[in-house]
Design goal:
With 407 residues, the chain is of the alpha+beta class. It has two domains: 161 residues, FAD/NAD(P)-binding domain (3-Layer(bba) Sandwich); 141 residues, 2-Layer Sandwich (D-Amino Acid Oxidase, Chain A, domain 2). It is built from eleven helices and 24 strands. The strands form six sheets. It has a six-stranded mixed β-sheet with strand order 9-2-1-13-24-23. A four-stranded mixed β-sheet has the order 6-7-5-16. Helix 1 links the parallel strand 1 and strand 2. The protein is globular and about 65 Å long. The two termini are 35 Å apart.
């Protein structure tokens, strides 16, 4: 079968957002031809396949945000999806704990947000928290999120890829976007022309958007996230928890702090870090080193250190210290009563958070961000909880795309 180089819709990026947008487009434009191009050998090789697997409940986000509007429904949608397809779901819930009296105000703020966002969240005593997880430590009280769950993101992506195939959507792996020349998209797999282009390229979404005249005030600033896994090989060395345990986060930035995650397979891990990365795919060592990106990113980091708008200096220093396993375990240890310092030995696969920053205001974008017109659409900021939100997020974005096309 010949390759269609003139699809109605061309999607750049086969992460979870790009894939779910494709499926939603097929629902809304049933007779359309849709092609997804992906630069890697397989979809989901970056953030989508490397994330924590947590289906967030939706109580962290301010009521005026897209995250707040979409997270609760996304959580329910994925749990239903996984149930229908017999995929692994760990209905383990989440405890949010206070480490001291000062953090009780943070618990109150999160509870307030849960009520505004219509998300189920319960105020519980320290004693009730111990009934849920006997090893948890909290000062006076905690919050219990019964709808938080964990899935295996790779398993979910594999299932979505089956849906893509069944829908008749073309997926081209090993096809890298190179540049735009007029109405043509030049790739490593030849030239394409499409009536409408959708950019869901994650770490490179801002660069592609600039080719179309968008993302003028924004750049992607990468942060490296790493998890440290418990040692399950030796008896008594690991740490088995019944639920996720999170601290009260610093609500000035979009990171949730070092916490315990119970995976879909019921393994315990500590993390993630939010270490400033030096280039966009700075996963390990000098792999995929890019000097131009490093110079650009270090320039942004320097301006953030100077401005210190959201406590970036302290954030950067604290995060760099988390390259130490001992330091990471020590931080997580404040959330539990007992922890074996030598019980966490294995680093997980690093992930890079494609965090958007407004280069004029020097502020991190806290919410999802997109821009577009009648010929192209660009998903600029699709960070956590984008995986949780992906199904309703794609519905929302396709609605916006239809408005742009018809404008």
């Amino acid at each position: 079968m010949s390759l269609n180089k003139h699809p109605d819709f061309l999607i750049i990026g086969a992460g979870i957002v790009g894939l779910t947008i494709a499926l939603e487009l097929k629902k809304q434009f049933t007779d359309s031809s849709i092609t997804i191009i992906e630069k890697e050998e397989r979809p989901g090789e970056h953030a989508s396949g490397r994330n924590s697997g947590v289906l967030h409940a939706g109580f962290y986000y301010t009521a005026d945000s897209l995250k707040a509007k979409l997270c609760r429904d996304g959580n329910l949608a994925w749990q239903e999806y996984c149930k229908e397809r017999a995929l692994t779901v760990n209905h383990c819930g989440k405890l949010v704990v206070a480490r001291n009296e000062v953090e009780l105000k943070g618990l109150d703020e999160l509870y307030k947000r849960s009520q505004i966002n219509s998300v189920e969240l319960k105020k519980i005593t320290a004693e009730e928290a111990l009934e849920i997880e006997p090893n948890v430590y909290t000062f006076d009280r905690a919050l219990w999120s019964p709808t938080t769950a964990t899935v295996n993101p790779v398993e979910v992506i594999e299932s979505v890829l089956k849906d893509i195939k069944e829908a008749g959507i073309t997926l081209l792996n090993n096809t890298t976007y190179l540049r735009r020349v007029g109405g043509k998209i030049i790739t490593s797999n030849g030239e394409f022309e499409s009536a409408y282009v959708i950019n869901a390229a994650g770490l490179y979404a801002d660069k592609i958007a600039k080719d179309y005249g968008f993302s003028k005030d924004y750049k992607i600033l990468p942060f490296k996230g790493i998890y440290l896994y418990a040692n399950d090989q030796k008896e008594g060395m690991g740490l088995k928890l019944k639920t996720n345990i999170y601290p009260v986060p610093d609500l000035r930035n979009p990171f949730l702090g070092v916490h315990f995650t119970v995976t879909a397979e019921n393994k315990t891990k500590i993390g993630p870090t939010a270490i400033p990365a030096f280039w966009r795919e700075n996963y390990a060592g000098f792999e995929k080193f890019n000097m131009k990106e490093m110079i650009d990113i270090l320039g942004i980091d320097a301006s953030l250190l100077l401005a210190n708008n959201f406590g970036f200096r302290k954030l950067a220093i604290n995060e760099m210290m988390k390259y130490s396993k001992r330091k990471l375990v020590q931080l997580a240890g404040s959330l539990v009563r007992e922890i074996n310092q030598d019980g966490f030995v294995h680093w997980g696969k690093p992930g890079i958070r494609a965090q958007l920053i407004n280069i004029k205001t020097k502020e991190l974008e806290m919410d999802f961000k997109y821009e577009g017109d009648e010929t192209s659409f660009h998903v600029l900021n699709a960070v956590s909880p984008a995986f949780t939100c992906a199904i309703p997020f794609s519905e929302y974005l396709v609605k916006k795309i239809k408005e742009k096309i018809n404008s």
